[in-house]
Amino acid sequence: MDQREHRWSRWALASREGDEASYSRLLTEVSDRARRFARSRLARSGHPLDDGEDIVQEILVAVHTKRGTWDASRPIAPWVDAIIRYKTIDAIRRIGRQATAREDIDAALPRLEAAAPVERSAHLQALDAHLDALPSHERGVVAALGLEGLSAAKCAQRLRISETAVRVAFHRGIARIVRLANERVGAASASRSAPR
Amino acid sequence: MKANTDDLIARLAGDLHQAPAAARIRGGRLAAAAVVIAASSLVLSGLLYGVRPDGPSSGWVGLTVWSALALAGLVPIVRSRAPDAAPPSILLVPGGAMLAILLAATLWANAKGAPAIRFDHVAHCLQTIGVLSLAPFICISAFIRRGAPASPAATGALAGLVAGAIGALAYSVSCPIHDPMTALSAHAAAVLVFALLGAVVGRRLYAW
């Protein structure tokens, strides 16, 4: 049995007894392996490597929610690798579909705006744009928790997903909005300071 | 972003108290569930379509074929819940081959002028076996969705095959077709359709 298999199975077994520190170590090593795999697949398929960390987080949530499917009498590394492979391929397909859909929306947006001009404040427009940039499940969770003020439990009930999935989606949605807002501020200040 | 992942790991580690679904399935419970599902389908078939006084329409061969297919499918269905399990092609290949042979035999019988498969037989069997397969398919799907199949489409085809076999097994006590080979072939065609439908549905239903 190789060192990694020995280490991971020991940590996984300890986590079944409620050992949070062992579980945290296991997830950290899994995330390193997932990151390498996701980035190599993203590079091979021509997608930006920025999406790699999102995939890693999806993999960690899958490992967590499906941890009961690991049979302790079998090695854990192939089980982890199977989840990494499945979630990465699934995510890359989705990223490809979203890129196509975004191109369609970009093409249709000027026509829609010309047909129905809407007067809104710049801040609300920016918030809408950031929300629209989120994947649909994250947008639903951020709107429910952040705008409607629902609890995680009620949001999970409404969307028929687990509370853990709600927290993860909210966490990632907010992080994405912050990143988009920072990029927007950076772009605006760069254009102001540019020599005329 | 790496900081977010570290934060997520801390959150997940703090969420350990929520017990996951058990990895090991108790064989006794599973066998009992399978017997209850098959018996319910048999009773439903009798209630909805009546019982033939002269034994099953597809003969004892049909009963054996569908029982064997349904039972043999249980093991790969249980295994398919784990993401590191091999795709359930072990059963799909012989299952598909067996059904293809049955259809070929029917076409051959038809060419020879023997009573053979007819479109109205297949359409009728599709409808009735579909009704009887629905509850088994829902039960099997609920079981699979608690797991993490690596090949949702193949697992769906397997679920459709097994649910269809249970439906065909149940309907054979009610089916009005007189010739056993004709009944067996019409039921086989229906089961094949359900395996294909299962693959289509399973691709989305079992994704995780």
Top keywords for this entry?
heterodimer; A: 196 residues; mainly alpha; 8 helices; 80% helix; 0% strand; B: 208 residues; 7 helices
Structure write-up:
In chain A, helix 1 (3-16) packs across helix 2 (20-45). Chain A has helices at 3-16, 20-45, 52-65, 76-115, 122-132, 136-147, 152-159, 163-193. Chain A has 8 helices and no strands. Chain A has 196 residues and is mainly alpha-helical. Chain A is 80% helix and 0% strand. Chain B is mainly α. Chain B contains 7 helices and no strands. In chain B, helix 6 (152-171) runs antiparallel to helix 7 (180-205). Chain B is elongated and about 75 Å long. The A-B interface holds A 15, 18, 20-21, 23-24, 27-28, 31, 50, 53, 56-57, 60-62, 64-72, 74, 78-79, 81-83, 85-86, 90, 164, 167-168, 171-172, 175 and B 1-2, 4-24, 81-84, 147-148, 150, 207-208.
Class from secondary-structure proportions of chain B: mainly alpha
Would you report the number of β strands of chain A? 0
Total of DSSP H or I helical runs spanning 4+ residues of chain B? 7
The proportion of residues forming helix of chain B, as a percent range, comes to: over 70%
Taking pLDDT < 50 over at least 5 consecutive residues as the criterion, the unreliable ranges of chain A are none
Order of helices and strands of chain B: HHHHHHH
Proportion of residues in β-strands of chain A: under 5%
The separation of the N and C termini of chain B measures 24 Å
Flag low-confidence runs of chain B. Answer: none
Strand content of chain B: under 5%
Condensed summary:
The complex is a heterodimer of chains A (196) and B (208). With 196 residues, chain A is mostly helical.
